[in-house]
Amino acid sequence: MSKEALIKEIKGLKQERNAIILGHNYMDMDVQLIADFTGDSYDLAVKAMETKAEVIVFAGVRFMAEQAKALNYDREVLSPDLNAGCTIADALDTETLREYRERYPGVPVVLYINSNIDVKAMADYIVTSSTAVKAVRKIPGDTVIFGPDYNLATYVERMTSKKIIKVPPNGKCIVHGNYVPDYIREARTKYPGAKVMIHPEAPLNIIDLVDFVGSTNQMIEFARNSEAREFIVGTEIGMINALKLKVPGKEFYPLTTEPIARCPFMAMITLEKIYRSLRDDVYRVEIPGNIAEAVREAFERTRKLLG
Ligand code: 13P
Ligand code: SF4
Known about the structure:
The chain has about 300 residues and is α/β, with parallel strands linked by helices. It has three domains: about 5-85 and about 265-285, NadA-like (Rossmann fold, 3-Layer(aba) Sandwich), CATH 3.40.50.10800; about 90-170, 3-Layer(aba) Sandwich (Rossmann fold); about 175-260, 3-Layer(aba) Sandwich (Rossmann fold). Helix content is about 45%, strand content about 15%. The strands form three sheets. Strands 2-1-3-4 form a four-stranded parallel beta sheet, sandwiched between helices. Strands 6-5-7-8 form a four-stranded parallel beta sheet. A four-stranded parallel beta sheet has the order 10-9-11-12, with helices on both faces. Helix 10 links the parallel strand 9 (about 195-200) and strand 10. Helix 4 (about 60-70) packs across helix 14 (about 290-305) and helix 7 (about 130-140) packs across helix 8. The radius of gyration is 19 Å and the shape is globular. Bound molecules: 1,3-dihydroxyacetonephosphate and iron/sulfur cluster (SF4).
């Protein structure tokens, strides 16, 4: 089927099934253009929670689709490809987290939204790249258990000066976790005058070299409000699509064009698979009711804390 025909079919099925397509900022341009809403993990979770549509097609990785299902349990949530995982989420299992809870009784457990759903159900608080620092500052006490992303944990530690017990000690993103300082130096030489934006899943030795640290939506805001006209984008390469769509008239350059710049899991979501999702009702995201309830409670507790 041609791309135009595919888009027409998706639009028709969306209407027929009262469906909404939520897309992450890293999606391919075609997917971002067909999505009803694009955003970062936090905004997508809130959108999923509030939608009245009967079906949510989640154009993002699995932990995002699972989060949507947990927050709006009566809706049908479809993932175009359930193999779209995340190396951060896969770094932590329930057994390991249970051990940490027992070793540090009474210490609050803060989990990054990039966690698998059974693990996330054990969290006291669920944070995203846009909310982690603010939330941890507001959690009573001076110590938290934080996982599964090691780099985000070290960034939160620096920004809050709380003691952060990292679980596991080595969870990392396949993209940001592999950035090296030379990428920043080379990009600055190539694009002098451009501001460098970085995601907090990158290590501190990268964060120390940049102009702005934030979630994908916060990068959009920074680029929109900055007087600068050029930006080096230190996150997954699909983000350039979101920036082009949402901040017209400015220039965006990838921090690196090495293959690591593309998340292989985000890349699994295509127009063809979105069409198949809506046509064949696949793949339904199913999670047990008690797990969904625990995730909902931790997410709501965190939202209250954020005010
Ligand atoms: P954001 O919440 O900043 O969009 O990040 C999601 C993610 O997977 C980062 O790699
Ligand atoms: Fe996970 Fe990194 Fe891919 Fe985001 S970019 S989904 S954190 S592996």
